[in-house]
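so im writing up the methods section and need the ABC transporter substrate-binding protein record in one place, dumping it here so i stop losing it
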Amino acid sequence: MSKKSRRIVGAVILGVIVGLVATACGGGSSSDGAEVKWAFNLPTSWDPVTSRTGNDINTISLAYASLTRLDAEGNVEPSLAESWKYNAEGTAVTFTLRDGLTFSDGTILDAPAVKAFFDRGKTQDDSFLRDQLAGVTEVTADSATDVTLHLADADYQIPYLVAGRTGAIASPTAAADPQKLSVWPVGAGPFTITDFVAEDHAYFEKNPNYWDAENIHIDHFELSVAPDPATLVAGVQSGSIDFATLPALQSKEAEAAGLDVTVKPSLAANDVSINLNKAPFDNPKVVEAFRYAFDRQAFVDVITNGLGSTTSQPFPSGYLAFNPEIEKLWNYDPDKAARLLTEAGFGPGQLSLEITAQSAATNRAELVQSQLKKIGVESTIKVVPPGSSTWQSEVYIAKNPQLATDGTIGRESPVQNLLAVYGPEGIMNLSGPHASPEFTAALDAVRRTPLEDPEYKPRLWQAVKVGVEQSPTNYIFSNPWIIVSNPDLKNLNILPSQVRWEGVTVS
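--- predicted struct ---
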């Protein structure tokens, strides 16, 4: 090799090293052409107002930023709003926006835009934010940067509430055509959409105007519908997938293939939902019998491969709202369950049920079926075809099932999560509109308590206890985030409430 050639090669190598060092140091710009392919779920709607499930926050937050966001410990921190302040009575909270915010369509993101979003969430016919915003009586734009939510009663949960879909502000210009917005997001988040094919994929580019753009190191982002779980590991090996949620039983296979498997706490809690509106659960003795029917540790061992934890409430152990006293209320006792069923008039084999399950979770239904058989209950399994809208319609809108296997991935606000699973209009309350007055009163007490007040945690725990006791639904186990990823993907940002992409790098 000539001296000139060696100098050229040396310069190229030096340039590569400098580039890698800059990326490793987490500089303000992303690595040139860095790309991530995420196999997950597409949202039920790209419009936060009509998005229908809690799981959507993971994908909605690609295109949208919320007023606040949660950190790894679940605490509220600034996002679009750099600060917030309550009035003395706790009946109004003013959010102060950052300067210079814009939506991806060029519309200014100011206080009037935020007001327009919340007004639409309260009034649009097909809004799924109405329940969350029910306590907001009025929204005022006090200046270009200050927007105030006026409340019917004191509610110190609002900063939590607006850390998710409820505070994921969409462009008022784009919202003039809600149907288009539902398939083409226009927000102020870390990425801007460039292509969307329903039930297949959505492609994004980095949004240079995102307020936290210096912490986004990905230039191109491909979101696709997750393939059959059996092919996930092969997909990551081949490079067609960089990042995916992995079934627990495949974690060993992924590790053996040399892939990175990350296990992180999540807010997910899985249940056996029971319908008080359907026989035989209109009989309190049958409801009580089912309290003792389920071996929770068996679910952890079989479904999560030992990576999860048992829970008798809609929160995982270690989370602020998890009340340890609840775990002592009902132990696994199949003999006692069988005795209670006999007292209710059902001897061995005399009670038969239908278990409703999603097609992707039939293993849970089969385990429920085997454990019910041990207490003398016969059952069949009805599988609902894939699709979150199908499941919502069949289970929680029509309320057809006697019993269903389901779960919650949690909400940013623990009060909102309790309302979702136990509230009279709760999107996951199979026994709706059943909700005891004691439960709603306990929730009101939590809302009226500032987060820094020493009474906040005891009141929250009391609300959880009342909610669990007044509902027939049995929570069984919590499963963590289990992520398989390309080893080149570094600094994963997996929070209990959602997956985020700030700080993630591609080496």
